[in-house]
Structure formats: C-alpha cells, structure tokens
Amino acid sequence: MAPGMSWDAGADRKLLLGILKMQNVSVDFDAMAEYMTTDDQKCTASAIQNRVKKLKAMAKEGPAGNDEGTPKPKATPRKRAQDGEDADTPSKKTKTTKGRKGKTTEAGDGDDEEVGEEAVVKDEVVDEED
C-alpha cells in the first residue's frame, strides 16, 4: 500500500494545474484581485486574468504531473581539478600542531631538526642593534 499524500508546494502546484486542465473553472477576477492585494502589493483583475491564462496554457502543455516549471535545487559547484588532480578526491592539507619548541610541519625548510616523525622548528636568536 502506498503512503499517504505529502502536501508540499510541488503537490499543490500539480493539483492546481490539474484542476485548470480537467475542470471548467470560472474565476471571479475582481474578487481574486481583491484577495491577492496586500499592504505591499496591489493586484488587478487583468493581472489575475493574465496569470490564470498562463497557468491554463502550462496545464495543457503536459500532464499535470509535469514539474518543468518548478525550480529544482541546484547542486553545489565543485572546484575545477588542477593538473594531475582528480576532481572528486579532496586534497590533503598540511597538518600543523604547536609543540613546546615551535610548530611541527610535514615539509622541511632546512632550519628544522628531525625528531622522530616530527620536524621541530629551531628557535633563532636575533641580535638587535640599538
């Protein structure tokens, strides 16, 4: 047995387009314009008439289940792969941690002493002239 109907914006749209397609609906455009008018927007009878005409045309174009006019969520864009990289594989970041004598890094720059598997940055003393 199929689950019950899930009423969301897509289902409401399908219902409205189905009614416009399958039923002989007469609309009181003046009453609908009054209903649609808010403090922020004024709606006219001709605007309602034009919109209903457009909706009826959409209903006739395809079956009521056709959701071509419903916006689909867009996928998150991915970064472009650089030379030699696979776009689906995330790149590894250099891990840094702070220790007693400085921070550890994976890459050496010549001033590092190897201690076990970590590289410890040497403390440098700089003499300043007054």
Describe the structure.
With 130 residues, this protein is of the alpha+beta class. Among the domains are: 10-61, no CATH class; 96-122, no CATH class. It is 30% helix and 10% strand. It has a four-stranded antiparallel beta sheet with strand order 1-2-4-3, with no helix packed on it. α2 crosses α3. It is elongated and about 90 Å long.
Q: What portion of residues belong to β-strands?
A: 5-15%
Please estimate the helix content. 25-40%
Number of helices: 3
Largest sheet: 4 strands, antiparallel
Count all strands and give the number. Answer: 4
Descriptive key words:
130 residues, alpha+beta, four-stranded antiparallel sheet, 30% helix, 10% strand
Blueprint of the fold:
Elements: H1 9-22, H2 29-36, H3 45-61, E1 97-98, E2 103-105, E3 112-115, E4 118-121
Antiparallel strand pairs: 1-2, 2-4, 3-4
Summarize the structure.
This protein is 30% helix and 10% strand. By secondary structure, it is an alpha+beta fold.
